Amino acid sequence: MSGYVGEFISILFLAFALGMDAFSVGLGLGMQQLRLKRIALIGIVVGIFHILMPFVGIILGQFISEGIGQITILLGGLLLVGIGSQMLFSAFNHELKKVIEPVGTGLLILSFSISIDSFSVGLGLGMSGVKTALVLLMFGAASMLLSWTGMLLGKKVRGLLGAYSEILGGSILIAFGIKIIFG
């Protein structure tokens, strides 16, 4: 029983780590003074993409793991460490990024770009044989809630937490990857 609790807690931390990108983007979007209806829609679409992208990654990861064997656990852990490291480095990148309007195709592109790292994480998790339904529900819910929180907070705060949330998210991914590798 404690094994299931440990796995649940690990997946919960991972879901929130991946959702930190959505939180960061949400902070920036919230500063554009969006209406509450638009905030709700953006959060739902981001959540859906955080379900779809890791699902494709998990399926592909499971397919790969059947052919490769035990080395996939190591590769999955290394992949998570790499993604977490990239998040940490991008938090210190001070270049200005082009703002995409969160409407129509722009919303889809924005959601895709926020959730692309969850594809890679899904790939790594698919290789390690994690419970797919639990992961997808937690990834979607966490990213949706964190994007809503970020946008609502962004309406109040003007840019204080953006980089720090990416640093926290990257650190959690690195820790989870190390746990998988040495686990």
Automatic annotation (TrEMBL):
<keyword id="KW-0464">Manganese</keyword>
<dbReference type="GO" id="GO:0005886">
    <property type="term" value="C:plasma membrane"/>
</dbReference>
<feature type="transmembrane region" description="Helical">
    <location>
        <begin position="133"/>
        <end position="154"/>
    </location>
</feature>
<dbReference type="InterPro" id="IPR003810">
    <property type="entry name" value="Mntp/YtaF"/>
</dbReference>
<feature type="transmembrane region" description="Helical">
    <location>
        <begin position="39"/>
        <end position="65"/>
    </location>
</feature>
<dbReference type="Pfam" id="PF02659">
    <property type="entry name" value="Mntp"/>
</dbReference>
<dbReference type="GO" id="GO:0005384">
    <property type="term" value="F:manganese ion transmembrane transporter activity"/>
</dbReference>
<comment type="function">
    <text>Probably functions as a manganese efflux pump.</text>
</comment>
<keyword id="KW-1003">Cell membrane</keyword>
<feature type="transmembrane region" description="Helical">
    <location>
        <begin position="104"/>
        <end position="127"/>
    </location>
</feature>
<feature type="transmembrane region" description="Helical">
    <location>
        <begin position="161"/>
        <end position="182"/>
    </location>
</feature>
<keyword id="KW-1133">Transmembrane helix</keyword>
<keyword id="KW-0813">Transport</keyword>
<feature type="transmembrane region" description="Helical">
    <location>
        <begin position="6"/>
        <end position="27"/>
    </location>
</feature>
<feature type="transmembrane region" description="Helical">
    <location>
        <begin position="71"/>
        <end position="92"/>
    </location>
</feature>
<keyword id="KW-0812">Transmembrane</keyword>
<keyword id="KW-0406">Ion transport</keyword>
<comment type="similarity">
    <text>Belongs to the MntP (TC 9.B.29) family.</text>
</comment>
<keyword id="KW-0472">Membrane</keyword>
<protein>
    <recommendedName>
        <fullName>Putative manganese efflux pump MntP</fullName>
    </recommendedName>
</protein>
<dbReference type="InterPro" id="IPR022929">
    <property type="entry name" value="Put_MntP"/>
</dbReference>
